[in-house]
Design a protein that fits this description.
This protein is of the alpha+beta class. It is built from 11 helices and 16 strands. The chain has helices spanning 25-32, 35-40, 49-66, 109-124, 139-147, 207-215, 217-222, 232-248, 293-309, 323-332, 360-366; strands spanning 10-11, 15-18, 69-76, 79-90, 93-100, 129-135, 154-162, 165-175, 192-194, 197-200, 252-257, 264-271, 277-284, 313-319, 335-346, 349-359. Strand 13, helix 9 and strand 14 form a beta-alpha-beta unit. Helix 1 (25-32) crosses helix 3, helix 6 (207-215) packs across helix 8 (232-248) and helix 9 packs across helix 10. The protein is elongated and about 75 Å long.
């Protein structure tokens, strides 16, 4: 029998990567019964304490002996904080995998660990490319991969093994010569307070109000490509599309709420974002119309686009006959610059649109002094 290889110890002074030990078993068990671990990984479920002992004592060391995986424990403050591995695919290729104990999530420790592992893989193991894969929807995994420089190369439909079935998977790559920095910005919807309303990120409890708003007759008329009937499934798909746009740096969406009760009153977003400009869109829940909610939210979003995104222009369009939507654009300070024939689709069919925009110089000159 071949002797067990010596597992190197890697550290940046805060996080340490080392061999997995049998004494890690209690924390391994805690990690593997955590709901997020069960949801997104292939860890057996149910997972017993005995399973953690077998993994730490037998399975993890054998991976090093066989060369199947170079697997490490993440240690933070002397405690097991998760595991991560490079799976050798031959010819200078490897696939990365990682899972964290709940205690270290959100602390930056996983990113530190991943950077240590990648540096070791490229420098000491001669890797030329590392692949990252995850089930579609695992935003935490994708965000971590993005942080250390992985590209996002698309969706592999129905190819990712997960709990006995094949689901859509995400894939990305990082080559040895590439920097370990994000390739593009990942946008977040910050909380903005303005004129009696709050703009905040969308949350799952908003689904009910989204369905109500998007099922409304007026909303359905002016946004003619919106699904009908509009269901909770449509709302969740819209949430995912928003998350995808934010990850790509091309879109950011807010729920507009009453600060007193947090009920969703409207939604506003910036989309088709480039370094130069972007477009604004919005809709209101029927109970929020006529209260100035959308105008206040749109004004805050436009200001954020100029101040935080650094764009030079924000544009907007509205059906020529949609007086309420055009009024919002005008209250924000936009100027009508023309129109486009049959530029939108209403529930009744194609319709002409009015085109508006506001430039950074116009916005700044119209803004009251601070």
């Amino acid at each position: 029998m071949s002797p067990s290889p010596t597992v190197p110890t890697l550290t940046d002074g805060v996080v340490t990567l080392r061999a997995i030990r049998e004494t890690d078993a209690p924390r391994v068990h805690e990690q593997c019964v955590d709901p997020d671990s069960v949801r997104w990984t292939q860890v057996p479920s149910p997972y017993a304490p005995e399973d953690a002992i077998v993994f730490t004592r037998d399975v993890a060391p054998q991976m090093w002996v066989s060369g199947e995986e170079w697997i490490f424990a993440i240690e933070v403050d002397g405690l097991f904080g998760g595991s991560l591995a490079l799976r050798d695919r031959g010819q200078g290729r490897a696939e990365i995998g990682y899972g964290t104990h709940p205690a270290i999530r959100g602390t930056g420790a996983a990113e530190r660990a991943l950077r240590l592992l990648l540096e070791w893989g490229f420098a000491d193991q001669g890797l030329t490319v590392v692949t990252w894969k995850a089930a579609a929807g695992n935003w935490a995994s994708r965000h971590l991969a993005w942080r250390v420089g992985f590209s996002f190369d698309g969706v592999l439909r129905g190819t990712h093994p997960h709990r006995g079935e094949l689901v859509d998977g995400w894939i990305g790559t990082l080559q040895s010569h590439e920097t370990r920095e994000p390739r593009q910005r990942w946008l977040r919807a910050p909380v903005l307070e303005t004129d009696g309303v709050r703009l905040r990120p969308l949350r799952e409890p908003d689904v009910v109000r989204v369905v109500e708003a998007c099922s409304d007759e007026r909303t359905q008329h002016w946004l003619g490509t919106m699904p009908t009937p509009y269901t909770a499934e449509n709302a969740y798909a819209w949430f995912e599309a928003n998350s995808e746009g934010q990850a790509a740096g091309t879109k950011v969406t807010w729920a507009v709420v009453d600060p007193a009760g947090d009920d969703l009153l409207a939604a506003v977003n910036l989309f088709d974002i480039t370094d130069r400009d972007c477009e604004i869109g919005y809709w209101a829940h029927p109970r929020a119309r006529g209260r100035g909610v959308v105008s206040a939210a749109a004004r805050a979003a436009v200001g954020w686009a100029f101040e935080e995104l650094g764009v030079e222009r924000v544009r907007g369009v509205a059906a020529v006959e949609n007086g309420a939507s055009r009024a919002v654009l005008e209250r924000v300070g936009m100027t009508s610059t023309g129109g486009e024939r049959l530029g939108t689709v209403l529930r009744t069919g194609p319709a002409d649109v009015a085109i508006y925009d506001v430039l950074r110089t116009e916005w700044e000159s119209a803004r009251p002094p601070r």
